[in-house]
UniProtKB/TrEMBL annotation:
NCBIfam families: casA_cse1 (TIGR02547). This is CRISPR system Cascade subunit CasA. InterPro entries: CRISPR-assoc_prot_Cse1. The lineage of its organism: Bacteria, Bacillati, Actinomycetota, Actinomycetes, Pseudonocardiales. It comes from Saccharopolyspora phatthalungensis. It comes from the Bacteria. Residues 202-240 are annotated as: Disordered.
């Protein structure tokens, strides 16, 4: 039985009424102007589906120039003609179970079929029981075809590394590409806006976006499906849509029927194609940074560019400079390149959101530990900040540095207390750390700083110059906010400590006193940094 992904309902979206629903790929475009956003059952599903939609959107709509992009942006909806024409050419490439199954390798041997649970990344298989689920290889669960389609796309993007079922003898596989970076999606008011905001000019014949070649295409457009043999030699991507649909694995689904519905009751997953290009040179939906190396001529970026990743507790907002700011030459950071296009074409006064998705693997890289999804405000005025004026970068650096320094001081406070009571706490159950009451409270107020900064910069475009008082006000407010959050975290932590002896009370009082002294010093240092930035501005003005 056919399961045509163009028409069958499987793409998870949120509608105009903010209720979840599922649509086909074609409907995702024809109704994009009235749908809000993509929302999968896990952050990795959302990210993977967005990347698939973008690959298809580029092949259908381009846009091949800034003029074409503006025409699509100004139109009330995506035009039907390009989608119908594309569908007529590739109508047989979107069947999940056809002779050329979508994003699959029909040459894989069906006798190697394993549990369909392998598709769902947080499910355990074989002896790898995890916290999330206790499925074992002997179970034969069935997945609804729509669910299987979503996880098929997700496995290509996010599958952990390690040993896989071999086609012949090669069991080794690298982590799928999206494990290496936080996937950044610029989100607008509707799905149409979101897709266009993440669609830079796409003209393979002119090498856009770099390094796209004329033969670039997503996997389903290739004349033949991939060989079941893994591509151990590595290859560079043909271009942007090739990378968006990169075949990290060779996969084959086994269809079954349940109550008249198509389901999947088995899957083969083997090693796939390995990338031979530096991600920073090809990936448009990730931010990167380089380490600074000291030379006799000063500090300069050197070595590889490391992608920005998400981590537990400490939010991705700490990488606001890498995520948002344009980078002048010899700067160690590189924002997601889709933002260069947003800065050039988007309306001046808009504030979009960056949704950043990530996955954390275990230390060996072979199992999923957790998923992440975070949001960072992205004022267009901030994306366009004059790259010859380094005050904004300096101020954001000071703000992030203050939060980091106070976070380190909170850890120091805990160590002081533990060391004072080392003897009597040697066998006590380890407490949760102070960090859990500190870091999660900071993303929202830092978002306020970014939005206020965007207003300041937007007003400066109208007035012709930046008001110094207005520019520094968000960062002064930030200092007081971080101090308040830190003190609230200390109070919460202290109330959960035992007060059974005078020694415990004295240890707590001494640790708190020393922390307050360090906190005050950090805030004074921050004020000095702000004043230095003010003085430099006045000197430049003279």
């Amino acid at each position: 039985m056919a399961f045509d992904l163009l028409d069958e309902h499987w793409v998870p979206v949120v509608g105009e009424d903010r209720n979840p629903e599922e649509v086909g790929l074609a409907e995702a475009f024809t109704r994009a102007h009235e749908l809000r956003w993509v929302e999968g059952e896990a952050p990795v599903v959302t990210a993977a589906v967005y990347r698939l939609l973008l690959a298809l959107a580029h092949r259908v709509y381009g846009p091949d120039s800034g003029k074409s992009w503006h025409a699509l942006w100004d139109a009330p909806c995506f035009p039907d003609g390009p989608l119908l024409e594309y569908r007529s050419r590739f109508f047989d490439r979107f069947d999940l179970f056809g002779a050329r199954p979508f994003l699959q390798c029909p040459g894989l041997p069906r006798e190697k079929m394993g549990s369909a649970a392998q598709l769902v990344l947080n499910r355990s298989v074989g002896n790898n029981a995890t916290l999330f689920d206790q499925t074992t290889a002997g179970d034969r669960p069935e997945l609804d075809a729509a669910v299987a389609a979503r996880w098929l796309v997700t496995v290509h993007a996010f599958d952990p590394g390690g040993l896989k079922t071999p086609y012949r003898s090669d069991k080794s596989s690298e982590r799928a590409l999206c494990n290496f970076f936080g996937t950044v999606v610029v989100e607008g008011a509707t799905l149409k806006d979101t897709l266009l905001l993440n669609m830079p000019v796409y003209a393979p014949g002119r090498g856009k976006p770099n390094p796209t070649r004329p033969d670039d295409c997503p996997q389903w457009e290739l004349d033949t499906p991939p060989s079941p043999e893994p591509d151990k030699e590595r290859r560079p991507p043909r271009g942007w849509t090739d990378l968006l649909t990169w075949p990290s694995r060779r996969i084959l689904l086994q269809e079954s029927r349940h109550n008249g519905r198509s389901t999947v009751n088995g899957v083969v997953i083997t090693p796939g194609t390995r990338l031979r290009t530096e991600l920073a040179d090809a990936e448009l939906m990730a931010a990167f940074r380089q380490r600074m190396t000291k030379t006799k001529h000063g500090l300069f970026p050197a070595g590889p560019k490391y992608p920005v990743v998400l981590e537990e507790l400490r939010g991705v907002w700490r990488h606001c400079r890498e995520l948002l700011l344009p980078a002048p030459p010899a700067n160690p950071r590189q924002r997601p390149r889709v933002l260069d296009h947003v800065a050039e074409y988007a309306p001046d006064d808009e504030v979009y959101s960056l949704r950043v998705f990530g996955q954390q693997l275990d230390p060996k890289g072979g199992a999923v530990q957790t998923w992440f999804q975070e949001t960072v405000p992205a004022p267009v005025a901030l994306l366009r900040v004059n790259d010859t004026d380094d005050r904004v970068e300096q101020l954001l650096g000071y703000a992030v540095g203050l939060a980091d320094d106070i976070g380190a001081a909170l850890q120091w406070l805990e160590r002081l207390y533990d060391e004072a009571l080392a003897a009597e706490r040697a066998h006590a159950r380890r407490r949760s750390t102070l960090s859990q009451w500190y870091w999660p409270e900071l993303p929202a107020p830092f978002g306020t700083v970014l939005r206020d900064l965007g207003v300041v910069l937007q007003n400066a475009q109208t007035a012709g110059s930046v008001s110094q008082a207005a520019l520094f006000a968000p960062f002064e407010w930030w200092k007081e906010t971080v101090r308040r959050v830190a003190n609230a975290a200390v109070r919460t932590w202290a109330w959960q400590l035992p007060r059974e002896s005078g020694r415990q009370l004295l240890a707590l009082a001494d640790a708190e006193s020393r922390f307050q002294s360090r906190l005050g010093g950090l805030c004074r240092d921050y004020d000095i940094d702000l004043d230095r930035c003010r003085d430099e501005d006045e000197d430049n003005g003279d």
